Task: structure prediction
Amino acid sequence: QKEIDQAQAALDSARAAGADRYATSEYAEAASSLQKAHDAVTQRDYRQALNYAIDSRQRAQEALRVAPEGKTRAHDAAVKDYDRTASRANELQTRLREADAARVPAKDLQIPRSTLSEARQALQEASAAITAGNFEAVSKSLTEVREKLDGAMAVMEKIPRPARKKSGRN
Result:
């Protein structure tokens, strides 16, 4: 029972460190071994229960060790998604400014403007999610936002760009 309790404590520590999200395979293996230890106790195979409990504790400790690396990878991926989406939103904003300067009718810009506004709101929410450590939600939501921004950019591509004035020296 002592070994099972130690394995449970190690598994709880790993979960508290985010191993269930950032070291999923190691955590799942630890949980599985702990369940096998409990099953072996039920079958009164105490030697096997001891082996499973020790295995569970070791796997939980490994999950605890690798969880920070997984969390860092998830954070970096979320920040990269955020940056790509913000860049795309900035491109759309630039195109909208050019269209305004070229006096494109407002009705032709309604959808891209609405999309840009929604994208800015989603970026604010993504920033808050990154700060809160909810990296999975960031990637999912920003993928959808980038698709909408791409659609708005396609609309903008159909609008002719203003001719640039040439500056010449005489």
